[in-house]
């Protein structure tokens, strides 16, 4: 039996019932509502600030600051520095303590993480106690502990501990000789550059040679000779010729304290110690988890190929573990950077202390200052995770 | 610390959505709440500090109690909110506190750019230095090269920079968020000198591990007119704060004390009659009752009584009246007449 095929196309659904159109419609409404909310909040805030006669806008960044800061990596003084300069000083102090902290905490974290897996009972348990104690005490408490411990243990400036080679230690910090660059410093820089290029070339050649013949070359020793030996030799030679490229300004005793030389503030040391030891406890657990994630068969296979335990760890286990380690490691780096804002409790002039503390209070422009500070931390975090993501992609297993 | 941050965050959010103030807005909201919120020091002996039982005492605290007494006839209807120097103005701007009575220096920029008003000066002060005796320093001019501990976000921090620049001396500043942290660091030997308002130096010295090892240097390097602050724009509220303080000054000048205020109501002296509200309607003019000053003096006392009890001879601080004596005794405290 044949039925008549309807010639009319299915009844055209109303435009209103098209799920796609509806979806777009609701999203547009949502975005508009959010924009409107922000617009309302912003205009309302500006209006209220004006009515309350509170200064607003970002012009304050060009005003003279009028206060001093203990640690400044750029030229900054109460006389000439602006609030904008104070912002940069604080930002640099945050970046410096974060960068140095990330470097040391990675090293310490890996060391402890590997130690936790040691077959030596004492080593493994010392590492375990370290992790359990450090990660279970709030960081703020640890920072205060380090600050008080560091301050309490050190002598007053008049009885500074002399440690030789121009190093002194007292309650105002660590003092060391300041290097002054001579006229011939460029020779030294050039030699160092040659050393770096030479090392890279030699490493490439050594790798190619190993792939071709299986013979291994003493890369470490050669690199040491090129990177350290060559510049030091040049330095001695230049010094003998009477044009010393580096001279040192030693700290001298002043009325109150040592003057001259370089000074590392106790606030910086306490903050760095606190951040490094605290974050290392977390990194140690991440490293341990990463290593345990590599199946035991890999280690056994490496052993049966005749690799020594050190080589097994370096060449077989760690490269595979890195895939598991890197993403949570990135979070720890971000945590360390953000935690550095606890510096405010021990008087280290980081971004929060200088900018959200002194500048906010002296200018009273809370909204602007808080917005800038949040923006800075967001940017630092995004940049860090951007680079870690690139590294992660390079380390990821290449599927064939 | 965290609490302060949270309060700033809330305050900012509130200021984003708050609507404008109307006349008598602060007084009405205080009456509605049933208590006054007073921004106080986190702990400064003689000016604002909770005792072992949690009762706040001090010269600045008394001013808040006096305001509460004038409004509610009850000096306990105050909630004290301890604020670090760097958080205090934000807390006031955002409405978290009704009045900031926290040894804050009145300056032009704070008055004009922070949206604040300083109705009165309840303590005339100046900035000084404290050092350890064994340093052998006898003048601030000898502090070239010293490390100096100070609290951040204060006029102290700025005066310090000015003073060393003007005298062409070098120094290392170590700034902390709270007065407590600042003094602890000085006491632990982090700094050679500690600087704040002279009144604060005497108060903090009491907390040193060995108070007698420290001396206050003779130089006073700045003018620090300390007083309560209110938000700009609510003039009625500013008037209340101004007149509560002036009532305390006038009471001292006229000999009206906590003990004799009830008898003084029958006085025939027209100045006392106007002050105590038995003549005229001065209290109603600022939105209070006409016996507002009686309430203040009955519960808190006059300015002299409050001074002696908190910072003067009756206290551990033993600060002389000096500039804070009444004008009739060679000081700067001058009660504006009630008429």
TrEMBL record, chain A:
<dbReference type="InterPro" id="IPR043429">
    <property type="entry name" value="ArtM/GltK/GlnP/TcyL/YhdX-like"/>
</dbReference>
<keyword id="KW-0813">Transport</keyword>
<feature type="domain" description="ABC transmembrane type-1">
    <location>
        <begin position="91"/>
        <end position="388"/>
    </location>
</feature>
<dbReference type="InterPro" id="IPR000515">
    <property type="entry name" value="MetI-like"/>
</dbReference>
<feature type="transmembrane region" description="Helical">
    <location>
        <begin position="133"/>
        <end position="154"/>
    </location>
</feature>
<dbReference type="InterPro" id="IPR035906">
    <property type="entry name" value="MetI-like_sf"/>
</dbReference>
<dbReference type="InterPro" id="IPR010065">
    <property type="entry name" value="AA_ABC_transptr_permease_3TM"/>
</dbReference>
<feature type="transmembrane region" description="Helical">
    <location>
        <begin position="366"/>
        <end position="391"/>
    </location>
</feature>
<feature type="transmembrane region" description="Helical">
    <location>
        <begin position="184"/>
        <end position="202"/>
    </location>
</feature>
<keyword id="KW-1003">Cell membrane</keyword>
<comment type="similarity">
    <text>Belongs to the binding-protein-dependent transport system permease family. HisMQ subfamily.</text>
</comment>
<feature type="transmembrane region" description="Helical">
    <location>
        <begin position="24"/>
        <end position="42"/>
    </location>
</feature>
<keyword id="KW-0029">Amino-acid transport</keyword>
<feature type="transmembrane region" description="Helical">
    <location>
        <begin position="223"/>
        <end position="248"/>
    </location>
</feature>
<keyword id="KW-0812">Transmembrane</keyword>
<protein>
    <submittedName>
        <fullName>ABC transporter permease subunit</fullName>
    </submittedName>
</protein>
<keyword id="KW-1133">Transmembrane helix</keyword>
<feature type="transmembrane region" description="Helical">
    <location>
        <begin position="342"/>
        <end position="360"/>
    </location>
</feature>
<dbReference type="Pfam" id="PF00528">
    <property type="entry name" value="BPD_transp_1"/>
</dbReference>
<feature type="transmembrane region" description="Helical">
    <location>
        <begin position="268"/>
        <end position="287"/>
    </location>
</feature>
<feature type="transmembrane region" description="Helical">
    <location>
        <begin position="86"/>
        <end position="112"/>
    </location>
</feature>
<keyword id="KW-0472">Membrane</keyword>
Automatic annotation (TrEMBL), chain B:
<dbReference type="InterPro" id="IPR018313">
    <property type="entry name" value="SBP_3_CS"/>
</dbReference>
<protein>
    <submittedName>
        <fullName>Transporter substrate-binding domain-containing protein</fullName>
    </submittedName>
</protein>
<feature type="domain" description="Solute-binding protein family 3/N-terminal">
    <location>
        <begin position="35"/>
        <end position="264"/>
    </location>
</feature>
<dbReference type="InterPro" id="IPR001638">
    <property type="entry name" value="Solute-binding_3/MltF_N"/>
</dbReference>
<keyword id="KW-0732">Signal</keyword>
<comment type="similarity">
    <text>Belongs to the bacterial solute-binding protein 3 family.</text>
</comment>
<feature type="signal peptide">
    <location>
        <begin position="1"/>
        <end position="23"/>
    </location>
</feature>
<dbReference type="InterPro" id="IPR051455">
    <property type="entry name" value="Bact_solute-bind_prot3"/>
</dbReference>
<keyword id="KW-0813">Transport</keyword>
<dbReference type="Pfam" id="PF00497">
    <property type="entry name" value="SBP_bac_3"/>
</dbReference>
